[in-house]
Design goal:
about 575 residues; alpha/beta; Rossmann fold; 6-stranded parallel beta sheet; transit peptide
Length: about 575
């Protein structure tokens, strides 16, 4: 196994050949402006006619008129033209659609495994890691490509780099030809934050055979996209492989703990509720209970799932948030909803029908995509008759059709455009997102995530416009600790310094303490993961990736030990997530 810098990611990496510049404050001089790269004519973008900024951005940045005065809209109304090499192919596209636990991914993964070259793209690095581990267990060489981890394998016979790769959807290499590509969870193409990555991959991947797997509600938008690209489309529809039924037993908050049976998963919708429910089960049932929630590292969630799935393990119950809806194979017999409402960051809102169906569908799941390893009938229950009837209706109802595909201007297009590169970067970025010219079925992304990240380094000195574009996609958590670490990382880049992960994060030294609280471990893990992500994009600034990986694994061991000793959350959160 070899860990190394990769060169196939879809954004700029600094050359390792250039020596890092270490500058002291005494002799430091601000760097001169860098020349923007020439416009990429293969994009075939039309040149939009400039329109008066006052008309285009009437309500945008009234306090900063320089943005509105200088910005011309970027035309991305024909995004399939951005990928001329993919358009030279007449791809065979196979859309596998069906509910959870229908085996829709099985045929796609079978074609991927048998291909001479291929890429599996999933929504989560847990899914990519699962495919990687499965092929490794079958002695099939496969690379792993995620934002913060790159493992390259070599064929023991030929000595060449493995021709199969598994990774997250943002990491799909659009410059390489594949015999087979698989894009999982295609319904996420309309996700307001990450949907652009699915759209880019669907339009741009250079594969002779492209498999798309997801919910049936994605069929309409995929048909529209394939009509634009001119590719051949085949739709394969799947039915659930094991029955999913409403459990007619009447449950209540008071009776729940005593009525739990092995294989039950209790679903809560806040970290606090997950912790409290887990503690109640351990106390009243005197049995161990697995716990899964979103802010746990993927590796820790996978370890908890492994304990729950193992029939020889003393862990018989699982308490989880909606994080179980995607990315984990869980041997769940019954799903029990404690509520059908979730806090969306501003208020409590009802769970949408697709999410109810996705979480409920985890009951009775097969452990793997292989049909021979099926479980029995899946059961779904809730703590009130009203909630149970809502679930019953949701399971019968079709999911609303996806109407849009999210698209955003590629970084190279922004670099080549006439946007104002001298103004506050977060303002410029939001202006670009909000003013980009699109047409149905495409929509612009929700700019909150990238813009909020950009606001963290707006005042960091020394960053180039290209640096800022790359940093806008960084996986920065909303916790104050992680955001503070990110600002320190940006200062390293802006000043041209060289640093390892401990140089920038003194709290990592606390890993030597075996009693460190779980919340602090989670924040340390986020900071290390962010360091690793940056180390692949700014390798001259961030060094000793191996050491950072070792510290990340130590942090995961500390987390697993805390969870095993029922010390899930020793102190309350100070900031909502």
């Amino acid at each position: 196994m070899i860990r190394k810098q990769f060169s196939t990611v879809p954004f700029r990496l600094r050359s390792l050949k250039s020596k890092p510049k270490i500058r002291s404050d005494k002799h430091y001089k601000p760097p001169g402006p860098k020349k923007s790269p020439p416009a990429v004519d293969v994009l075939e973008l039309s040149s939009p006619t400039p329109v008066p900024a006052s008309k285009l951005l009437s309500d945008l940045y009234q306090n900063d008129p320089s943005i509105a005065a200088k910005l011309h809209p970027i035309d991305i109304s024909h995004p399939w033209r951005h990928f001329p090499n993919a358009r030279k192919l007449r791809r065979k596209v196979i859309l596998h659609i069906g509910p959870t636990n229908s085996g829709k991914s099985y045929a796609a993964l079978k074609a991927f495994r048998a291909a001479k070259s291929g890429f599996y793209a999933g929504p989560l690095r847990m899914l990519a890691r699962e495919i990687y581990d499965r092929l490794e267990n079958e002695n099939v060489p496969c690379n792993l490509l995620t934002g913060d981890e790159v493992l390259e394998k070599y064929d023991p016979v030929t000595g060449e780099r493995a021709r199969l790769s598994a990774g997250t959807v943002e990491m799909v290499d659009l410059s390489q030809d594949f015999e087979v590509a698989v894009i999982d969870e295609i319904q996420m193409i309309d996700d307001p934050d990450r949907g652009w990555a699915w759209t880019k991959a669907v339009l741009g991947v250079r594969a002779n055979e492209l498999h798309l797997c997801g919910d049936a509600n994605s069929e309409k938008v995929i048909r529209t996209l394939m009509a634009q690209t001119g590719d051949d489309l085949e739709v394969r529809k799947y039915q659930r492989l094991s029955p999913l039924k409403i459990d007619e037993r009447q449950l209540s908050p008071a009776k729940l703990i005593g009525m739990l049976r092995p294989g039950d998963c209790v679903v809560c919708f806040s970290k606090k509720q997950v912790k409290e429910m887990r503690d109640r089960i351990v106390k009243q049932r005197k049995q161990k209970c697995a716990i899964i929630y979103g802010s746990l590292p993927p590796e820790t969630r996978a370890e908890q799932a492994k304990l729950f799935n193992n029939p020889e393990s003393p862990v018989k119950f699982l308490v989880a948030s909606d994080a179980i809806g995607m990315g984990l194979n869980l041997a769940i017999r019954r799903i029990i909803f404690t509520s059908l409402k979730k806090f969306n960051g501003e208020e409590m809102v009802p769970l949408p029908v697709p999410q109810i169906k996705q979480i409920a569908g985890r009951a009775g799941r097969f452990k793997l995509a292989d049909k021979s390893e099926g479980a029995g009938t899946g059961l779904v229950n809730a703590l009130s008759l009203e909630a149970k009837e809502t679930i019953r209706e949701a399971l019968k109802a079709p999911s609303p059709e996806i109407q849009h595909a999210v698209i955003q201007p590629p970084n190279r297009v922004i670099m080549a455009s006439s946007v104002d590169k001298a103004s506050m970067f977060s303002h410029t970025l939001q202006s670009v997102y909000q003013s980009a010219l699109v047409q149905v079925p495409y929509i612009r992304p929700r700019d909150n995530s990238a813009v909020h990240v950009a606001q963290l380094y707006d005042h960091v000195f020394g960053l180039t416009f290209e640096d800022k574009l790359a940093l806008a996609n960084a996986p920065v958590s909303t916790t104050p600790e992680c955001q503070a670490a990110f600002i320190r990382y940006c200062e390293v880049i802006g000043s041209g310094r060289v640093a390892n992960v401990v140089d920038v994060n003194r709290d990592i030294a606390d890993l030597a303490n075996r009693t460190i609280p779980t919340i602090k471990l989670e924040n340390i893990h986020k900071a290390i993961t962010l360091f690793l992500w940056l180390s692949y994009r700014f390798p001259c600034n961030f060094i000793d990736r191996e050491g950072a990986t070792d510290l990340k694994e130590l942090c995961e061991r500390r987390l697993n030990a805390n969870l095993a000793s029922s010390k899930a959350l020793e102190r309350p959160q100070t900031r909502r997530r």
